[in-house]
Specification:
The protein has 377 residues and is of the alpha+beta class. The protein has one domain. The chain is built from ten helices and twelve strands. Helix 2 packs across helix 5 (172-201). The longest helix is centred in the middle third of the chain and has 30 residues, at 172-201. The protein starts with a strand and ends with a helix.
Length: 377
């Protein structure tokens, strides 16, 4: 079990974002990503994506989220914190600038900023993705947050984790109370971030959702090494917790024991999503749900996966248990035509004369329909 929160920003609302040129380190980032000029539509889209990344970073810092885990595009990783540094945005931007001098980085589909944050009782990973262009009907800005209770950390040993978890499964009441406590914590943080977006970016609408996700391993997990071995550097995971970032093995281990303990204790499984070892959705479980271990091996990692006898589950597609399930898949179709670059509408309002050769940028400038005022005549 771990928590997932998602914020998506409707592109229809982005026309109201302040036309602010990136400053300092972000101006340098825009300079390298555009080759030093903003002339073609794609280059203007890149310039605007960096501007939005800077504004989103400001939003996150306003709620105390300031530790960078990774800065990347979909093709190149510029910075990844492997030491647990604090407040390391400058280091991330410096690493970007250094690498940008030697690599071709202009062609990319999205910018990626991964942050970490620690509440008193919950460790959080926050994955922010800004698409340079997107299909019609899809949202270009997506923030995925994962939350894990720190009281179940394996820092002091793996056996102690199972011992600490035992009390959660003593009764259905204890189980539901534990989940409710951390769901409330996650929603509190999501609300803080949403409020900050409205305060700093003048956005009219943000869509928000949260889910409890339960991992159903193919085999029983005895140690952290077991699930580390299944990690793939090339797979694109829906949740940042699966990427194996520094320091998160300890707080993620308990999640791999969860389904087995539900099965052993006949816990009523409800209002959650069961996922495979990569975090891909397998079953969407409703309020009625099913009782784990009663006539099913749905959550039993020692047996092949089977569907529960319940009318309150939805079978998803695109997961690792397809061969184990003799049932009709539900295909999630995506409609809509390929659109042009979503940022181009905003990008066209910027001046083609931006060169951004130093870190000063157009500090503090707010641009209207044209960015001519940023650089002066």
């Amino acid at each position: 079990m771990y928590l997932q929160g998602i914020l998506t920003i409707d592109p229809a609302q982005l026309t109201q974002i302040d036309r602010v040129q990136p400053t300092k380190g972000f101006a340098r980032m825009a300079y390298f990503l555009t080759g030093g000029v903003v002339a073609a539509r794609e280059e203007r889209e890149t310039f605007c994506a960096v501007t939005l990344l800077q504004q989103i970073n400001k939003v996150m810092r306003s709620v105390g989220v300031n530790n960078v885990v990774k800065l990347a595009t979909d093709t190149v990783v510029f910075y990844e914190d492997t030491e647990g540094r604090e407040d390391d945005l400058k280091q991330a931007l410096d690493a970007f600038a250094q690498q940008a001098k030697s690599e071709a980085i202009v062609n990319f589909k999205e910018l990626v900023l991964v942050l970490e944050h620690h509440l008193d009782d919950m460790a959080c990973l926050i994955d922010i993705r800004i698409a340079r262009s997107h299909p019609v009907g899809e949202y270009p800005i997506r923030i995925t947050l994962n939350g894990m209770p720190t009281e179940l950390s394996a820092r002091d040993g793996e056996k102690q984790v199972r011992d600490r978890m035992a009390g959660i499964f003593d009764s259905q009441r204890d189980y539901d109370a534990f989940l409710a406590k951390y769901q409330e914590r996650l929603l509190w943080l999501l609300d803080q971030i949403e409020t900050s977006f409205h305060e700093h970016m003048r956005i009219d609408n943000i869509e928000k959702q949260s889910r409890v996700k339960i991992i159903r391993p193919k085999n029983r997990v005895a140690s952290r090494d077991t699930y580390r071995s299944s990690h793939s550097d090339s797979y694109i995971y829906d949740d940042p917790i699966y990427y194996g970032y520094h320091g998160y093995d300890d707080v993620f281990f308990y999640s791999w024991l969860w389904s087995d303990m539900m099965h052993e204790n006949h816990i009523h499984c409800h209002n959650c999503v069961i996922v495979d070892e990569k975090g891909d959705d397998v079953l969407d479980v409703g309020d009625k749900g099913f009782v784990a271990g009663e006539g099913n091996n749905t959550l039993n990692a020692e047996e092949p996966f089977s569907l529960p006898d319940s009318e309150d589950v939805i079978l998803c597609s695109g997961h690792d248990y397809g061969a184990d399930i003799d049932s009709t898949r539900i295909d999630a179709g995506v409609s809509g035509e390929e659109g042009g670059g979503w940022l181009s509408g905003i990008a066209d309002s910027f001046s083609d004369s931006f060169s951004g050769g130093d870190d000063s940028g157009c500090s503090g400038s707010s641009c209207g329909s044209s960015c001519g005022g940023c650089g002066g005549d």
